[in-house]
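[Solved] Which block belongs to which protein?

Original post:
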Amino acid sequence: MKHYMFLIAYQPGDLSAASEEARAAFFEQHGAFSAFVAEHGKELASAALDDVETATTVRHVNGEIVVSDGPFAQTSEIIGGYYQVELPDLDTAIAAVRLLPPSYSLEIRPISTIT
């Protein structure tokens, strides 16, 4: 089994402003994802991240540490959450993320096992 991190990026919006049907579909898709992962491996961790306005970025600039409010990059999509899972292979990981809401862009990253 391999460990993967799924980074969830999406266009910011207000889920509470969505229709009841859209909210139900959103939660059903996350439920289907979790069921698939449980059947093929296991979910190790997951969380939604707080709003991008709460981000703090730390950079090394000319030998000094610069701390600034806000995200590292200014993009139209934000990283809004993650799943850390254990699954057999990349094909299974891809099958799992296909179950999440189609409004997401998902980055699948194997977790390095440096020994």
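(Second protein starts here: sequence line, then its structure tokens.)
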Amino acid sequence: MELFSGAENGWLLIPLLSVYFICDRWRDRPRPQPARKVQMRILWASALVVLLLVPWVRLLLQPFPGWPLAEWTYALLLACLALALIAAHEGLHCARHLAWPIVPVFAALPWPAMIGTGLMGRLRVLMASGLAELFSLAGQPAIANGTVIQTGRGLVGIEEACGGNAGRR
């Protein structure tokens, strides 16, 4: 079994990439600017509120581990806590500068069914038609029919190919 082969192990790659990007951006971060007392109080109060909410959301994740809303809420709370602590220590400019590497973490979370079936289905159809065009340009005639690509050698489904089960029907 490879380290990053399946969904059960894929969770490790995204946070490691985020940490790498944060370390990379840390070198060219803006100079620390001391926050005003009002800003500091707001930042520390919001960090405290988030710290109080995190255990409750984590407790909610115990009986419902795959619930997208709870997982998104938990990740959002942790991201807000990290950014609030960075802003309190280094300033708001630095927190804004370091915020974008946290975004890929949300891509690794399970998406709500409405987005997963609607958007992802359209993306698979678009990918199938794009790949069929690339095959045709490369000299292998191919036609896309929904999420299935028909070639001279057989049919390839986008779901099977993306899942690592690329087999012919």
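Accepted answer:
You had them paired correctly. Confirming on the second one: Confidence is low (pLDDT under 50) at residues 1-6, 163-169.
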